[in-house]
Amino acid sequence: MSASTAAEWRPDPLLSIDDVATWLGKPKNTLYAWHSRGKGPRAIRVGNTLRYRRSEVERWLDAHTDPER
Predict the structure, then answer these.
(1) What is the reported pLDDT for 68?
(2) Rounded CA gap, 56 and 44, in Å?
(3) How confident is the model at residue 36, as a pLDDT?
(4) What is the number of alpha carbons within 13 Å of residue 14 lying toward its C-beta?
(5) Burial of 24 by CB count in 10 Å (0-12 exposed, 13-18 middle, 19+ buried)?
(6) Which of 1, 26, 28, 63 is the residue whose CA sits 20 to 30 A from 8?
(7) Contact (Cβ atoms closer than 8 angstroms) between residue 13 and residue 53
(8) Sign of CA dihedral 60, 63, 66, 68
(9) What is the overall mean pLDDT for the chain?
(10) How far is CA 10 from CA 7, 13, 21, 62, in A?
């Protein structure tokens, strides 16, 4: 990988459950419940914590946006 390629690549930020709860205006317990039921944005388990890719939360929001009328 060249220096210019390394400088251009940026990782998708991993958000904490607190970050996502604040963003969505939902309690953390709701996010934990969604995760255990396979609902809500897809999460990644890192050790004993959940992390969310920002792009996954945005994709989930797009999929749950009401269609234009």
Answers:
(1) 78
(2) 10
(3) 94
(4) 7
(5) middle
(6) 63
(7) yes
(8) positive
(9) 90
(10) 8, 9, 24, 22
Q: How far apart are CA 15 and CA 3, in angstroms?
A: 27
How far is residue 11's CA from residue 3's CA, in Å, rounded to a whole number?
A: 16
Cα angle value 57/43/35 (rounded, 5°)? 100
Structure tokens at 23: 């963003």
Q: What letters, b where the CB count within 10 A reaches 16 and e where it falls short, cover 29-58?
A: eebeebbeeeebbebeeeeeebbbbeebbe
What whole-number distance in Å separates Cα of residue 21 and Cα of residue 23? 5
CB half-sphere exposure, 61, CA atoms < 13 A: 11
Rounded-to-integer distance, Cα 14 and Cα 54, Å: 6
